[in-house]
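Give me the 3D structure for Lipoyl-binding domain-containing protein.
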Amino acid sequence: MNATYKVKVNKDFEYTIDQEEVSKTDIIQTSDSKFHLLDKNKSYHSEIIQSDFNNKKYSIKVNSNTYEVDIADSLDMMIAEMGFSVGASKQVNSIKSPMPGLIIDIQVAVGQTVEEEDYLLVLEAMKMENIITSPRAGTIKSIEVAKGDAVDKGKLLIEFE
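Predicted structure for Lipoyl-binding domain-containing protein (161 residues):
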């Protein structure tokens, strides 16, 4: 399988690079953080100045210019395509229905304080009961559905204060 990467440079320029292109690159590591690169008969000296491996963010100096580089692999791209992002669940102020279905139980009330992963409600969809849990600790501001309501995908269910 040929891995694909989305590379964003200085938050302005975006490139898609696959594993085959990476393997064809003429690059030599000259020290722990320095590299020498040949591309189209041009020589480039590069150095990784700062790296955040877990978040795939790097500060790279090429010749005398410094660039901020973000790298997304196929999993990162799939997560973004599905509308999710790493760490975003902690900022959630509302919960919307992930699919059409029927509200069969509501386990919280307005004003109630909940913790992350507490059960909020049960949504029946495709003959399966889906328990919707709290993405963060907080207080329930409003409940926009009632037991027995049919909901469409994207319908607002619960808001947090």
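The chain has a mean pLDDT of 87. Let me know if you want a second pass.
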